[in-house]
Design goal:
Elements (H helix, E strand, L loop, with lengths): L1 H20 L1 H56 L3 H52 L19 H23 L1
Length: 176
C-alpha cells in the first residue's frame, strides 16, 4: 500500500513540476477551473432565484388558506360552535407560522443573491485576467470558451474527462 502511495506522490510531484515548468498549461488548467466555478456559481444563482419564486408562490397560496380558515372561524362562532372556532383558529395560526417560515426562507435567499452575483463577477474578472495572461501567438490555443454552454452538465463532464485523460497521458509520458 505504501508503494502505491509513494508512487502516486512521486507522480503528482512530477506533474506539478511539469506544470510549473509550462506556465501555459498551468494557465489553461486554471482557466478550466474558473469556468467550472463560474458555471457552478451561475447554477447557484439560478437555484436562489427559483427558491425566491417558489416561496412567493407558496406564500400566496397560504394567504387564501388563511382567509378560508378565518372565515370558518366566523362561521363556527355564528353557529355557536366554539370548539370548531378554536380548531379553525389553531389551523389559521399553523398556516401563519408556515407563512413566516417561508418569508424568512425567501429573505435568506434574497440576501444571498447579491453575494452570489458579486462572487460570479469576481470569478469572471479573474477568468478574464487569466485569459489575458495566456500568450496567443507562441503557445497552443487555450481550451475553447463555453459561454453559452456554461449550464450544460454534459459539456462540463466531458471537459473534466478530457482534462483527466490529458493529465493521465502526461503522467505516462513523464514516467518514460
Amino acid at each position: 500500500m505504501t508503494f502505491f502511495r509513494d508512487l502516486n506522490a512521486f507522480l503528482e510531484q512530477k506533474l506539478e513540476d511539469f506544470i510549473r515548468a509550462n506556465p501555459q498549461l498551468e494557465l489553461n488548467l486554471l482557466l478550466l477551473e474558473l469556468e467550472d466555478q463560474e458555471r457552478e456559481t451561475q447554477e447557484r444563482l439560478l437555484r436562489l432565484q427559483q427558491e425566491v419564486n417558489t416561496c412567493e408562490q407558496q406564500i400566496l397560496g397560504l394567504v387564501s388558506e388563511i382567509r378560508r380558515w378565518r372565515d370558518r372561524t366566523h362561521t363556527a362562532m355564528a353557529a355557536q360552535r366554539p370548539d370548531l372556532a378554536e380548531l379553525a383558529r389553531q389551523r389559521e395560526a399553523e398556516l401563519r407560522r408556515r407563512g413566516e417560515q417561508l418569508w424568512t426562507q425567501r429573505l435568506n435567499a434574497l440576501n444571498q443573491i447579491p453575494v452570489t452575483q458579486q462572487l460570479l463577477q469576481k470569478i469572471r474578472d479573474r477568468r478574464r485576467e487569466v485569459m489575458n495572461r495566456i500568450p496567443t501567438a507562441s503557445a497552443p490555443p487555450p481550451p475553447p470558451r463555453i459561454s453559452s454552454d456554461l449550464n450544460d452538465p454534459i459539456e462540463a463532464e466531458f471537459r473534466r474527462l478530457e482534462l483527466q485523460t490529458a493529465l493521465e497521458e502526461l503522467k505516462r509520458s513523464m514516467g518514460r
